[in-house]
Amino acid sequence: MKQPKIHKIYNPAMECMDRSKLRELQSERLRETVKLEYERVPLYRKRMDEKGVKPEDIQTVDDLKKLPFMEKTDLRDEFPYGLFAQKLTDIVRIQGSSGTTGKPIVAGYTENDIEVWTEMVARALTAAGGDADDVIQICYGYGLFTGGLGAHQGAQRIGATVIPMSAGNTERQMMMMTELGATMLCCTPSYATYLAETLRDRGLLGKVKLKAGVFGAEPWTEEMRTHLEEILDFDACDIYGLTEIGGPGVAFECLEKHGMHVNEDHVIVEIINPETGEPLPYGESGELVFTTITKTGMPMLRYRTHDICRLIAEPCACGRTLIRMSRLTGRTDDMLVIRGVNVFPSQIESCLVGLEGVAPFYMLIVDRVNSTDKLEVQIEMSEEMFTDKVSEIEQLRSTITERIKSVVGIAAKVTLVPPKSLPRSEGKAKRIIDNRGLTNK
Amino acid sequence: MFVHQISVYLVNAHGTLCKLTGLLKDHNVDILALMIADMSEFGIVRFIVKDEDIQTCLDLLKEAGYSARKNHVVCVKIPNEAGGLHGALQLLENAGNSIEYLYSFNYSGDNNALIIFRLADREAGAKLLLENGFNIATQADIDALGC
């Protein structure tokens, strides 16, 4: 049942802070973080030295633009511990995500960082209406992926009753949801849609007690929200985050459902021109860049997300002063999010290296069937790869399928197609056909 | 002693075989025998053509974007009688020589069936069959069939 629009706020002191006070707080925390990063992370110190920037040059948020950027490739190059600013003695958790090649990226959390992350998710769940009376079902995967544990910690923090289902097994999800009377749901929006449609088709909607859902880990659209809310008669809220910056909860929607509030006492958000790196004024569309200012295990300064969106500076009716970010409208690179998992074509490519003959031409085709993402990898079979034996071709196909599964972490359908049958594009090779219609305007 | 066979990779989709046979027809290539291994996603078409057509065929296929391969198979004349094929298979089995697949010509011109064998050990298999009274058809024999 949809809730009356009453805005609950987990930490009003921080979430509704006067913006000039907030800026002071941010500046103070930024100074500390830059100092820590410069002292402890050789890569970043080198980069600052190259730019001729010293920690004392960074006094306020306005100085942020003097700092060099960080990129996902830095996490790969410094894998695993190079970007950690603390000894492993003080690192209490590792979480991970996909890298751009075969290797994953990892992030280290101190006790403090887990606390920061937990609070960010607690704020998000509270904003969606959650409190100690709620029964929260979590069907994000638990593990290296930040979704499961992130939602779990936040839900526990607000005192809710947590059902840690983890991902998959829809039958069991539905049974627990209806029998235990879950009032809130945390998962990817596509899985929520699949669950909702299955509940509807089984005639189980009468037994569903959901009032809200907090959905993230992949981009979604207003159309998907409308569809979900129509079926489940509840409030579907968006949540944003990335492992590098701490996990889900970096930004979250309130019941106004108009943009996600960025937890600005923990991160500073910028929008830059992806071509020039120049910061853009609020309201303009560009690449989202985050600087963590409370994380101590692996601080990230000016981390380029490659997500495109804009910032909404107008005050929100919920009373929070935290700035909002719009829905994502695209990427500046070719990353795909499939069933909540970040997928780079370069990762797939790394699975094809070492096959017979030259690296084959390939294409990724993504579709959404019954609200579930399907990835098909079409690979052109070169003459060298072709043998007359069915068993050898099947073997080749299953080898590729297994490699993709282990490198990317999701199952893909591998199809071997004849040579020269995939469309060629001029200039940069187009590797992706995405038929899911997820683009926000 | 061996016969040339051409194998082509096809996606298992409507019309792909027809497109292939159309290409061969347009270039006047006669298919003497053909078999298809069909899997859910793809198929391998194997066929025999006259010696003079083999290179043309391979060039054509390559140009048209097919993955194709030429290989050698054993073509055995099997007496057209009960147990004819069994005799050959029994010999190979006893020798531990595995058959990867086999298929038959629909025309032989005499009272024999022509069976194409793809063997794990082609040389040994052909020798064994010859020693045991089977006749092996060569590419020249195939070309002369006039079928």
3D structure, described in words:
The complex is a heterodimer of chains A (441) and B (147). Chain A is an alpha/beta fold. Chain A has two domains: 12-333, 3-Layer(aba) Sandwich (Rossmann fold), CATH 3.40.50.12780; 337-434, 2-Layer Sandwich (GMP Synthetase, Chain A, domain 3), CATH 3.30.300. Helices cover 30% and strands 24% of the residues of chain A. Chain A is built from eleven helices and 21 strands. Chain A has a nine-stranded mixed β-sheet, sandwiched between helices. Chain A has a four-stranded antiparallel β-sheet with strand order 10-11-12-15. A four-stranded mixed β-sheet of chain A has the order 20-19-18-21. In chain A, helix 2 packs across helix 3, helix 5 (111-127) crosses helix 6 and helix 10 crosses helix 11. The model of chain A has no long low-confidence stretch (mean pLDDT 94). With 147 residues, chain B is of the alpha+beta class. Chain B has five helices and seven strands, in the order E-H-E-E-H-E-H-E-E-H-E-H. Chain B has helices at residues 16-26, 51-63, 84-94, 122-131, 139-143, and strands spanning 3-11, 33-38, 42-48, 68-79, 99-104, 112-119, 135-137. In chain B, strands 1, 2, 3, 4, 5, 6 and 7 form a seven-stranded antiparallel β-sheet that branches. The longest helix of chain B has 13 residues, at 51-63. In chain B, 30% of the residues are buried. The interface between A and B is medium-sized, with 19 and 20 residues.
